[in-house]
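The instructor's notes for this session suggest beginning with a concrete chain rather than abstract definitions. Hand out the sequence below and ask the class to guess, before any prediction is shown, which regions might be ordered.
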Amino acid sequence: MGIANRAVILTLARITSYGLMLVSPIVLVRLFSVADFGRYREFLLYAGILQSIAAFSIPDSLLYFVAAHPASPWRVVRRSAVLTLCSTVIVALAVLLGNDATHGALVGPYAWPLAAYTLFSVNLDFWECFWVARRRPYAVFAYSAGRLAARLIVVVAAALLTRNVWVILWALVGLEGVRLIASALALHRLGSRTREPPIGEPWAGFLRFCVPFGLAAVLALFSRNLSALTVTKLLGAAALAQYMIGRFGEPIVTTVRNSLSAVVLPEMVHRGRGARGGALALWQQATVVNAICLFPVAVFVARYALPLIETVFGASYAPAAPVMQLYMVVVFRECFDFGPALRAAGRTAPLVASNLISLATCGALLLLLVPARGIAGAMAAFAAASLIEASYLAGATLRTYRIELRKLLPWASLGKVAFASGLAALTLFEVPLAGVPVLPSVALAAAAYLLAFALLLYALRVPEAFLLLERMKRVLWRGAVRGV
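After discussion, reveal the predicted structure:
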């Protein structure tokens, strides 16, 4: 299966894995007050940070090491499982002890469910990266869809039956415990079927790869969530609820980018063994595909943020509209993912430095903007820091591949995509239309905009657009044949 095919399937799979973040808010905002929904999102905020710290990007290292040691994939998995177990135990203990030492100032009353959720959800959660590295995107889709269905059933059922946030939180903990047991049984059964040759890679080699990349991921996580943490600590749970609704589309945006990067990285490792130029060309093509997917999203959502939020979440979340509009700056930045280009060349140190710069910039801007502009100021700080981070990584990529700025990206294709997304915006009409409800009216506007955007890409002859269309047709055809 080709790279584009796997990227499309993986994107769909990862969107389903984020279903809890995408679907549950639409239900829960109607069952809970803004403050109670804010408490639920506060738990998810802490949980997401702790999960990333505990995982330390160790499962993501499978994308590299399974591709580098194709004859011994399960040995690689076992090493990653041991490292993950050590890191999760350390993080869980640190949360409990740190919260007790600060008299609850760290994570408040969520300490015990957070510790349990981190241990259960992070350990043996390697399947997605493992199957991506083994080029089995349909397995990723099945796993993600099943996990989504279980999470949604548990969360919605607990909410409908009890209307109690704590019941929902402990139900999620129990579900992850069941998943951990099932994953352990599957690993034992599948991993013992064949005898594999020794890896030959010392543990120090794993750590040299994982530690810088993991540190970069943790710093990136704090950079991405520092604004949310500042909002919840300074402005309270209700403000956090509105701020997170403003970032509602973030899982979809990061999924589109990260799915393509996850598929591209192993291929870049393979191609990098020959000529480094081949690896760079593949990454450049992926960047244009990212732009095709995300540029029109940024334009359209910036135009219709307020009616979308009021229709889907209710008028009480209207203050989230400026946050969502400012987040579109971050969407634009997400098109340019320099991580795979640097990781394929074995350079992970710039990722650490860039996130330190982003974290410091975001922290300084938050101190200035949150007291003055509230949740909109928090998003403005986050957006500005993300642009500065991208600029630093662009310079690091130039130095790594020893190229000039004009050769860093396919500027002609990117310019055409930007022009098409901007010119197509002329089709966006006023909302609401006379006699037409808001949501159908926005849907009609979206259809007109996407049609105009697609026609402009065709007229401008953007090669990556033709490639993406052809691959999507093949994926949909194969999915229909297989019943996926």
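Then share the key points. The chain is about 80% helix and 0% strand. The two ends are 15 Å apart (CA to CA).
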